[in-house]
Design a protein that fits this description.
It is built from three helices and nine strands; from the N terminus they run βαβββββββαβα. It is α+β, with helices and mostly antiparallel strands and 182 residues long.
Length: 182
Amino acid sequence: MLRLNEKKWADFFIKDLFITEIYNNKLQMPTGAYINKNDLSEGSIPRITVTSQNNGIDSFCSSSHKNFRKFTNFISVSFLGTVFYHPYTASLDMKVHCLQLKDRELNKYLSLFLITEIKKSIENASYGNQISSTDLPNKKIMLPIDNNGSPDYEYMEKYIEKTVASKRQEYIKYFTGSINVT
């Protein structure tokens, strides 16, 4: 397997990789919606907010409110720049964006690679420099490419799998005392 610095890379607009929608004649990322706490009841669906804690999960709820949107297997990006992978079905709060690949299912390994690159693209996000649903599609991320110039998702997935396996072995050696720590 080629190292990251041996692989060819290219810039891609988020809108070219992830599902977008047209709202008020503008291209944007799907988002959650504001729902008053009184319209949410205790339930089993994670509610993703802009918090940087607990994978963005604020509570577990359900709702019959017309704006209660649910997404499955996605990367959330908040207007403040928190980014998480959610392999389950979750509801998004206002100003939390949903990223689902157009032509491929996400998994934990591919998501870890993509999240790293997404975070680089939005690293200057702050309360004064918020990421809007119409700005996010025009952000660029750098990704390794295959021979056709397309994102090499297989490479990204295998790279993270290999890295995780290697780190797991290091931890096992460390905790079993078979590694010399100085």
